Amino acid sequence: MSDPSCLFCRIVKGEIPAKLVHETPDVIAFRDINPQAPVHVLVIPREHIESTGALTEAHEALSGKLLVAAAEVARKEGLDSFRAVSNTGADAGQSVFHLHVHVLGGRSFTWPPG
Ligand code: 5GP
Ligand code: ZN
After folding, report:
1. Considering the domain boundaries, does residue 12 fall inside one?
2. In the chain, fewer beta carbons within 10 Å around the N or the C end?
3. Residue 112 in domain
4. Would you say the CB of residue 85 lies under 6 angstroms from ligand 1?
5. How many angstroms separate the CA atoms of 19 and 87, rounded?
6. Distance 78 CA to ligand 2 centre (A)
């Protein structure tokens, strides 16, 4: 449920400060400490789940809530265009092993993302 050694679990508990932009009973969203775009928000479940790759049918409702929260963040931030990205595994660039969706916006992006 919660991992005391996990950075994002500690943010959920309020042990490490973060700039919250949105919260629901299941999900929180806060600004990335090292923004890669004018808007860069991380949307995470309160529950500790390692990555998108660890999701199962048991997480169907929560997965929907995560994506809806990403859309809410984009609306709150006034973004018409944005990227919703979930790096999964070290080779894909995941550095914090608590599931998160990056919401990036306020600039243009190239495809493929690299
Ligand atoms: P990942 O690399 O796993 O896809 O994304 C992890 C993100 O967490 C990175 O963009 C990184 O800048 C952000 N991050 C790492 N430590 C902290 C922190 O203590 N606070 C906040 N707000 N973001 C963090
Ligand atoms: Zn965690």
Report:
1. yes
2. C
3. no
4. no
5. 21
6. 29
**Residues near ligand 2 ion, CB 5 Å cutoff:** 3, 6, 8-9, 48, 98
| Domain assignment of residue 42, yes or no | yes
Task: Give the domain CATH number at 86.
Answer: 3.30.428.10
Q: What is the pLDDT along the chain (114 residues), one digit of tens a residue?
A: 899 999 999 999 999 999 999 999 999 999 999 999 999 999 999 999 999 999 999 999 999 999 999 999 999 999 999 999 999 999 999 999 999 999 999 999 999 998
Q: Domain count of the chain?
A: 1
Q: Find the catalytic residue in 40, 48, 98, 100.
A: 100
Task: Determine whether 100 is an active site residue.
Answer: yes
Query: Per-residue b/e over 51-74, b at no fewer than 16 CB within 10 Å?
Result: bbeebeeebeebbebbeebbebbb
Residue 52 counted as domain residue: yes
User: Structural domain of residue 81, as residue ranges?
Assistant: 7-99
